[in-house]
Write a sequence for this structure.
């Protein structure tokens, strides 16, 4: 990234395509090596082009969190989609049914009888059954059944529900609480086997644990999203280096009101307020002395070393704390292409909140 | 808000038009009473329709933070616009010059000679001079000149710069640090008068201080944005009540994995991660026992009283911590109109980051 960047307006989100493709390749290689299928989460890039690049590299499908994202990806030709979400309510179930009719493989997750009942009602008369995986709470304390026994009970319910087919087990994050995920999933799968239920897939995920991921003798598939762009939270956790961060916010210094302070034109509307447990709001590449100490909507406040002042008009490249949410804040991003060009692309699945 | 809301998909952002119009009226009345002109900040609603409603109610113009927002508002017929931002760089200055040619009144702020030099270069040959106000840092520690003497020096520079006209003084937030704003602005204005410079406007702003705002014998104008919708941060500060909160997120319970926990389909992609100094991530109307304890992108985790369980499919109305950023996260919002209808409207100036 260099000269052509001077010609674009800030704040901008710039993705280095070569780094992104290298990140895709590297984690696909890891999964291939440890015997895990890879199903990338498209929430990070929200781009059909990168979803296709992930498939070309060897991924066996994609993960979405929202039907709206899956619809956009299906429009783009992606045809093997897992929606890791409880789909609830007649409007969403109707959309899910329509989506199932136009992709070759669709699956969702569920963690309760109520959700399964809704799915069954929507798919009872469908041409093909819907695959439903049981979400397991292995310590993440979000959604998910609480015990292996509950997982078995819900799997049995799915396997007998009209229009549905039991698709396996799903959890997030990979490690669970204090590494309890593997034990939970292993116990659940053993209970399924004892009950005579086939468990075709056991899927876990999360970029923080990507490099230590392995089957643990139970996982068949891994889901990761952030790894394509990487971000400050992953650098801080030792998962990648700054050189692996493909997604960067380009900002301009608009004020240097005091010797120890500068202000940039990137605030929470660009970097988001996500901290992910970190102090400050991003990393300014090439400026280890700078700290982004505060954000308001359109301003980022930097603590500056008075011995290394910034100039108004100077441009800075920032690795955000959490890159996935930044993709959602730009209608269009800039792609620094492998041939040295700069291409503006719409973020296909941005803003698909439903 | 009631029956028709059952027919829309969640998560949704719903604005009660009657409450919004009442909020507009109430603060306009306050400003009229204390002798302040009101220049609402459109960042909260980003809607041409509400900007026009604010003008109809008596506002003397609007405030924008970005040229992109101002362009959208100009397209919609708003023709008196203050952009409270340092406009930096040739691309932005060209857009500013074009914008000046199609509205009847345009002003910007500046806090440095570098910014003034750029503005002057862009407007030196313009048909009309650009009004430039000096931004004063009265304790907010963002942009702004640091002392009344600096304000005078920059005002003198503006007044002699080709293409520019000195427009007055601007600060944010209203109270400054420990109430120092009035003293700073008074001293700056007195210095201007002594130097023979006319100071047509002294403008301050911020919804938190709206009800205690008055001229303080120096202010001529007040800028406020959040007051049209209000939010949890303003309720917590005693500025308004829950009944005054026009902007609400409608969410659905999608999981009740444990007796003390429920999960809704509104996460940080909807409520944002903005805390504004508060604990938790929003207020669930009618459920004082609930706390929104954690957000991920598409999930909100609620701490639930086991004696008052929630049901999957149940809908909740949430007042967000910071409503301005929520407007930016939805392409379209729902307006609960005064006649009891429900109308979907595009958020005109959403996502205008440049």
């Amino acid at each position: 990234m260099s000269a052509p960047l001077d010609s674009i307006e800030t704040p901008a989100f710039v993705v280095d395509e070569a780094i992104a493709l290298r990140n895709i390749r590297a984690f696909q290689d890891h999964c291939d090596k440890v015997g895990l299928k890879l199903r990338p989460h498209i929430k990070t890039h929200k781009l059909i082009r990168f979803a296709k690049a992930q498939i070309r590299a060897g991924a066996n499908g994609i993960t979405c969190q929202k039907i709206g994202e899956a619809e956009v990806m299906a429009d783009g030709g992606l045809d093997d989609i897992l929606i890791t979400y409880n789909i609830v309510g007649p409007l969403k179930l109707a959309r899910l049914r329509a989506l199932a009719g136009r992709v070759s493989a669709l699956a969702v997750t569920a963690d309760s009888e109520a959700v399964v009942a809704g799915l069954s009602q929507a798919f009872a008369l469908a041409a093909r059954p819907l695959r439903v995986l049981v979400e397991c709470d292995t310590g993440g304390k979000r959604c998910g059944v609480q015990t292996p026994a509950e997982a078995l009970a819900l799997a049995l319910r799915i396997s007998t529900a009209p229009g549905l087919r039991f698709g396996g087990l799903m959890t997030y994050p990979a490690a669970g609480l204090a590494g309890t995920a593997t034990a939970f999933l292993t116990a659940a799968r053993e209970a399924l086997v004892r009950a005579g239920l086939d468990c075709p897939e056991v899927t876990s995920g999360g970029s923080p644990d990507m490099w230590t991921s392995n089957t643990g003798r139970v996982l068949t598939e891994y889901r990761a999203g952030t790894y394509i762009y990487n971000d400050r939270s992953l650098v801080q956790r030792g998962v990648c280096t700054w050189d692996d961060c493909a997604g960067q916010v380009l900002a301009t210094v608009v004020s240097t009101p005091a010797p120890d302070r500068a202000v940039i034109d990137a605030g929470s509307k660009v970097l988001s307020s996500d901290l992910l447990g970190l102090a400050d709001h991003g990393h300014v590449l090439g400026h280890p002395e700078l700290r982004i100490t505060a954000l308001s909507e359109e301003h980022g406040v930097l603590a500056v070393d008075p011995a290394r002042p910034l100039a108004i008009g100077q441009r800075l490249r920032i690795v955000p704390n959490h890159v996935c949410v930044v993709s959602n804040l730009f209608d269009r991003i800039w792609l620094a292409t492998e041939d040295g060009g700069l291409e503006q692309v719409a973020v296909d699945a941005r803003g698909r909140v439903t």
In short: Chain B has a mean pLDDT of 96.
